[in-house]
């Protein structure tokens, strides 16, 4: 068991947790403003695909060399933003059911990247592989630092600025915010768009930071794990970060430590059981077994000015 | 200061405001009165920017203004305190007050200076609050003060108050009037929306009367009286007494002994209440809303978690404590709920499907294949009997309940509950939001049921209704029975005192 | 305009809109949308292969569509159909493997039971969690999907796989657990097409679900709970019971996908067999306006897309089968934005109110 805390495992945890943290923080802004974000998965996929495709294009067509991944990152960010706009308009302006819209976006994102990659790259869903020096920084220290900065920023914005106060009010009791002159839809748009940006960045990191290309359905449920981490973290920035680290850790363990952690009988723990851990934990937390989990009160309810 | 000219607003089929003209002079307390649904709240919400009028103009300080949202209204110095408070419960007083107008910069929220400013306003208007207290810990009266401070913080010159005394005890109402007078002295203009005529006469300078979406009169308060205002509100002489024969009283049908209802925090909403209702009588419970009536009725109907109840409930000799809502119905206890949209109806379902709610699971409604399949004919028969017997309009059992007016919905519910020939009937606010014609019908039905031997427990916030219908009258105050009076001889002062002081 | 016409109009608009947007996308990547669509529809409607495969693909969608429908009618969002069908499929295969030597008289009913009861059980878990603890079924069902997939993968890999088999699948089930394909009864219909009697079972389930929801007292209670839980409670209905019951019925329906897949097609459990049946079931239920007849129509539509999509992928230069998902997603988006279209068409009747 001593082997568990090797440097490589910690580095692995940080790398694996990063897209989760980004997506979860995005989800936090959205859900705190009252909009459920099932579509994190779709936004991440959009970001991942676009980042990889744009980086490739920047490199091959524009010959930007080492600057390509940053252009790709921007592309991923914008892609997440674009999807978020569709989601926001659907839920906020048209008052569509948020879960249904989110599911729609996820289904769409299963198809669109493959469709586009088939069109542009004549492949069955992947983008071409990128050379190692055209990826985002790999050092865990840099990444950890960036992530901590994001978390700190999120905390500050949420609790120490008027924007954050209004955002939280809109998620708890939109009528009160409306009566006070705050634009409910404006704040909710902000929340969802920020979610799109952050999730897009998270997805971008997945394709051009953690690996070197985009493959079909690359996120493999990470958007949902990010959502689970958000719930586990009780919709608070620091706790969400810890939840993401925990989930990242279990993923790292399931990859690296096959064979290192054994049952008392001497057998290996099958990888599937380690994979299950985040999901089981989330259910347990949501049922209130570990502290009370109270979401923003107006979460999931479209704001109607009736009566 | 404020004028609404030819304001018209339609919600779907309903014409909420029909060429409404209201003129409020600066530095006055102006009352807008009317029954529920008269359009008073709508008009004021248009003035505050919550809704936008279909046509008409809003004139502030002599200039026509385009108020598209509360933001615009606030900028013009208009503030509004709503009937249902618009406060974020989990946030503190200070956070609620400054929301939308936060001191400090966009990058840093300055709650300290907010607290200081709040204390200043508190002093000026004698509205004592603790800025750092979470709103969910405050009493109703304190929350109202927070709402007032919210408007004052934004330098409101005109305050619109929607049914401000609905949740206050008579003592708190007096304090509240003091606050209003102080505001008038400070040069503020106040509009209160209310349907309580006694308060209008006590505090206002001018009154605008609305009925069915139209303005039907505008008078100086000193020139008018309650009867005249009532006549304008209703359109004809209001009959304040219900004709009813003497009750034929039988055995005790419902007995409540030392009943208490607790909240999850341990507070007692109903506090050691005991009383009995006999067959053939109507026992009324009068009190300001929010004193435990809702919890009492729901406890008797079996809709509350037994873990939060202590004491005993017995019906016809049997203990009900452990029994759920369905079994209580089977024992002959029917219930006309306070909130017909929330409890009483499945709005999306047809009238026919609503008419069987509560009896849907047994014959004659569920009759085929081991009492599982529903018998369409039986359902139609029942629906028709209720619709025709209780004058529910339109007479179409296939219509969705949502399509009916409040009065017709209430008649459907009452017909449904009657149809089970209850031995005990729990009734709460039976004529809220119901038009005059239906009110008289409903009152007659209640008395009729009483005369058939049913034991009726009637809860109502309308003093006239509860005093004229009841054979015995209990007053509830902060969860306790403050006293019992004979409704035929008790004066409104006597009752009011019990409602206020609790003794 | 009659009520029926009004009900049909809206989904039709959604589908049409989706095809238009899809067509634009196809144009953008350099293909002719009309060609693509002609390929798609032609492939799906040819005899016998097109129709056969389309109906075969429609079968699981009808089951999951019904599953989601029942949940919606109780105000519940069952996103867990995917997990429920996976675990039911494995359980069905397990019974078929363990009792492989028995006759069909024993094996078929037992396998049916395994499919239905396992699905029901897996769905009852989030039902109980919601009824007892109030935790939201959306998240719980999503989590249980992942757990189901992991569990089933574990059992397949470590216990029921044929040794040395590189494919993640179990050993075959006994012959007694096979259910007949259409080819057995219809002379000109080849038996290689996997369309089997499970399709008829699916249609039967539509009828049963209709009867259950609208003609029995249990269905009344479920619908009342979905429409207004406070009023249902007032009427003596136990909300908690309804939640668990509705979820269980929903899960049982989703589990029946196993019958089509394991007993009628692959005759074993094949890891990853579900082509997003669970999620597509949501689209089917919504497009079908949460009514059994609508579910059949919507399932057929999506099956046409699914089968046609594979064809288009093979024959078209630039268009891949992902176009199917794109079309599906757009359809759901439009269905979800119903209120906008209501405003366009000028009539108001919202979806059943979904509990938040």
Largest sheet of chain A: none
Give the mean pLDDT of chain B.
Answer: 85
CATH class of chain A: Mainly Alpha
Intertermini distance of chain B: 44 Å
The low-confidence runs of chain B, each spanning 5 or more residues with pLDDT under 50, are: none
Question: What is the share of helical residues of chain B?
Answer: 25-40%
Q: Please report the total strand number of chain A as a whole number.
A: 0
Largest sheet of chain B: 6 strands, mixed
Number of domains of chain A: 1
Q: Which runs of chain A of at least 5 residues are low in confidence (pLDDT < 50)? A: none
Estimated structural class of chain B? alpha/beta
- Number of helix segments of chain B? 17
Sequence of strands across the biggest β-sheet of chain B: 6-9-10-3-11-12
CATH class of the largest domain in chain B: Alpha Beta
Can you tell me the CATH topology of chain A?
ABC transporter involved in vitamin B12 uptake, BtuC
| Annotated CATH topology of the largest domain in chain B | Rossmann fold
Shape of chain B: globular
CATH architecture of chain A: Orthogonal Bundle
If you average the pLDDT of chain A, what whole number results?
83
Strand content range of chain A: under 5%
User: Total helix count of chain A?
Assistant: 11
Quick gist of this model?
The complex is a heterotrimer of chains A (307), B (503) and C (356). Chain A has 307 residues and is mainly alpha-helical.
Can you describe what's shown?
The complex is a heterotrimer of chains A (307), B (503) and C (356). Chain A is mostly helical. Chain A has a single domain, classed as ABC transporter involved in vitamin B12 uptake, BtuC (Orthogonal Bundle). Helix content of chain A is 68%, strand content 0%. Chain A contains 11 helices and no strands. Chain B has 3 domains: 233 residues, 3-Layer(aba) Sandwich (Rossmann fold), CATH 3.40.50; 173 residues, P-loop containing nucleotide triphosphate hydrolases (Rossmann fold), CATH 3.40.50; 77 residues, no CATH class. Chain B has a 6-stranded mixed beta sheet, sandwiched between helices. Chain B has a 6-stranded mixed beta sheet with strand order 18-21-22-15-23-24, sandwiched between helices. In chain B, strand 1 and strand 2 form a beta hairpin. In chain B, helix 14 packs parallel to helix 15. The mean pLDDT of chain B is 85. Chain C is built from 15 helices and no strands. The longest helix of chain C has 30 residues. Chain C is globular.
């Amino acid at each position: 068991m001593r082997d568990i805390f090797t440097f490589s495992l910690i580095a692995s945890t940080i790398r694996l947790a990063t897209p989760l943290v980004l997506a979860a923080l995005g989800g936090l802004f959205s859900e705190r403003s009252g909009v459920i974000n099932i579509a994190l998965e779709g936004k991440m996929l959009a970001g991942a695909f676009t980042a990889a495709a744009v980086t490739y294009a920047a490199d091959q067509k524009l010959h930007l060399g080492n600057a390509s991944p940053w252009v790709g990152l921007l592309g991923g960010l914008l892609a997440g933003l674009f999807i978020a706009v569709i989601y926001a308009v659907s839920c906020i302006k048209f008052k569509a059911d948020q879960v249904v819209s989110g599911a729609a976006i996820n289904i769409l994102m299963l198809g669109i990247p493959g469709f586009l990659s088939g069109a542009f790259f004549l492949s069955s869903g992947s983008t071409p592989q990128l050379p190692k020096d055209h990826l985002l920084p790999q050092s865990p220290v840099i990444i950890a630092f960036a992530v901590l900065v994001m978390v700190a920023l999120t905390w500050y914005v949420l609790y120490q600025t008027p924007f954050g106060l209004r955002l939280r009010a809109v998620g708890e009791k939109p009528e009160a915010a409306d009566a006070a002159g705050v634009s409910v839809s404006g704040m909710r748009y902000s929340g969802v768009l920020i979610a799109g940006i952050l999730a897009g960045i998270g997805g971008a990191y997945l394709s051009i930071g953690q690996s070197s290309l985009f493959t079909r359905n690359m996120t493999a449920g990470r958007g949902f794990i990010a959502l689970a981490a958000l719930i586990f973290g009780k919709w608070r920035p620091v706790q969400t970060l810890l939840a993401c680290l925990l989930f990242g850790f279990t993923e790292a363990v399931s990859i690296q430590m096959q064979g290192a952690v054994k049952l008392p009988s001497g057998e290996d723990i099958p990888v599937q059981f380690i994979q299950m851990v985040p999901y089981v934990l989330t259910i347990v937390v949501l049922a209130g077994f570990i502290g009370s989990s109270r979401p923003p009160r107006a979460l999931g309810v479209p704001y109607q000015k009736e009566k | 200061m404020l004028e609404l000219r030819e304001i018209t607003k339609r919600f779907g089929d309903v014409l909420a405001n029909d060429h409404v003209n209201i003129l409020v002079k600066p530095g006055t307390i102006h009352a807008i009165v009317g029954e529920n649904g008269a359009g008073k709240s709508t008009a004021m919400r248009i003035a505050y920017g919550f809704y936008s009028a279909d046509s008409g103009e809003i004139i502030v300080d002599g200039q026509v203004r385009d108020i598209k949202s509360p933001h615009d209204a606030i900028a013009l110095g208009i503030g509004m305190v709503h009937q249902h408070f618009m406060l974020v419960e989990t946030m503190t007083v200070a956070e609620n007050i400054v929301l939308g107008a936060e001191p400090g910069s966009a990058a840093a929220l300055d709650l300290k200076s907010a607290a200081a400013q709040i204390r200043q306003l508190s002093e000026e208007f004698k509205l004592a609050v603790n800025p750092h207290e979470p709103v969910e810990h405050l009493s109703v009266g304190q929350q109202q003060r927070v709402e007032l401070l919210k408007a004052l913080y934004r330098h409101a010159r005109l305050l619109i108050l929607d049914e401000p005394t609905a949740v206050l005890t008579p003592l708190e109402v007096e304090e509240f009037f003091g606050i209003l007078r102080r505001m008038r002295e400070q040069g503020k203009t106040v509009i209160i929306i209310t349907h309580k005529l006694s308060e209008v006469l006590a505090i206002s300078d001018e009154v605008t009367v609305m009925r069915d979406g139209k303005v039907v009169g505008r008078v100086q308060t000193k020139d008018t009286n309650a009867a005249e205002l009532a006549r304008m509100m209703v359109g004809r002489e209001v009959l304040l007494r219900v004709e009813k024969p003497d009750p034929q009283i039988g055995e005790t049908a419902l007995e409540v002994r030392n009943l208490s209802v607790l909240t999850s925090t341990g507070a007692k909403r109903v506090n050691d209440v005991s009383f009995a209702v006999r067959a053939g009588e109507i026992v009324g419970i009068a009190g300001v809303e929010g004193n435990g009536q809702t919890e009492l009725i729901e406890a008797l109907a079996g809709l509350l978690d037994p873990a939060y109840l202590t004491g005993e409930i017995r019906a016809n000799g049997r203990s009900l404590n452990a029994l759920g809502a369905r079994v209580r119905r089977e024992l002959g206890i029917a219930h006309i709920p306070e909130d017909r949209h929330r409890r009483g109806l499945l709005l999306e379902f047809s009238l026919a499907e609503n008419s069987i709610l509560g009896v849907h699971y047994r014959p004659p409604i569920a009759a085929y294949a081991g009492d599982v399949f529903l018998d369409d004919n039986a359902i139609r028969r029942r629906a028709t009997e209720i619709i025709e017997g209780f004058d529910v309009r339109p007479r179409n059992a296939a219509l969705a309940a949502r399509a009916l007016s409040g009065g017709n919905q209430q008649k459907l519910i009452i017909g449904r509950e009657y149809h089970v020939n209850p031995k005990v009937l729990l009734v709460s606010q039976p004529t809220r939001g119901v038009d005059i014609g239906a009110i008289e019908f409903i009152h007659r039905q209640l008395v009729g049921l009483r005369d058939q031997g049913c034991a009726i427990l009637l809860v109502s916030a309308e003093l006239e209704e509860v005093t004229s219908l009841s054979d015995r009258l209990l007053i509830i105050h902060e969860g306790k029975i403050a006293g019992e009076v004979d409704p035929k001889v008790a004066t409104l002062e006597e009752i009011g005192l019990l409602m206020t002081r609790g003794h | 305009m009659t009520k029926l016409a009004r009900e049909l109009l809206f989904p039709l608009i959604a589908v049409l809109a989706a095809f238009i947007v899809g067509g634009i996308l196809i144009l953008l990547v350099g293909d002719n949308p009309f060609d693509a669509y002609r390929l798609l529809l032609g492939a799906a409607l040819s005899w016998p292969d097109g129709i056969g495969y389309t109906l075969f693909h429609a079968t699981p969608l009808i089951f999951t569509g019904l599953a989601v429908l029942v949940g919606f009618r109780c105000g519940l969002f069952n996103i867990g159909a995917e997990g429920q069908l996976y675990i039911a499929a494995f359980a069905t295969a397990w019974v078929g493997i363990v009792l492989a030597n028995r006759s069909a008289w024993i094996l078929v009913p037992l396998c049916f039971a395994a499919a239905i009861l396992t699905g029901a059980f897996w769905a009852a878990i989030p039902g109980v969690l919601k009824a007892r603890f109030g935790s939201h079924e959306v998240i719980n069902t999503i989590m249980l999907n992942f757990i189901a997939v992991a569990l089933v993968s574990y059992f397949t890999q470590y216990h029921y796989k044929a040794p040395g088999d590189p494919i993640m699948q179990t050993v075959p089930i006994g012959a007694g657990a096979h259910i007949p394909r259409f080819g057995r009864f219809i002379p000109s219909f080849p038996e290689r097409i996997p369309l089997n009697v499970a399709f008829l079972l699916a249609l039967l389930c539509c009828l049963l679900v209709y009867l259950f929801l609208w003609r029995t007292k249990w269905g009344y209670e479920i619908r009342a709970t979905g429409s207004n839980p406070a009023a249902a409670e007032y009427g003596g209905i136990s909300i908690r019971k309804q939640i668990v019951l509705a979820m269980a019925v929903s899960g049982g329906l989703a589990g029946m996908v196993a019958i089509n897949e394991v007993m009628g097609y692959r005759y074993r459990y094949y890891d990853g067999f579900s082509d997003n049946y669970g999620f597509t079931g949501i689209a089917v239920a919504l497009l079908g306006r949460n009514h059994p007849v609508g579910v059949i129509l919507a399932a057929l539509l999506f099956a046409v897309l699914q089968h046609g999509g594979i064809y288009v992928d093979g024959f078209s230069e630039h268009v891949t089968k992902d176009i199917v998902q794109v079309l599906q997603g757009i359809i759901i988006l439009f269905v979800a934005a119903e209120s906008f279209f209501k405003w366009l068409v000028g009539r108001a009747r919202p979806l059943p109110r979904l509990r938040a």
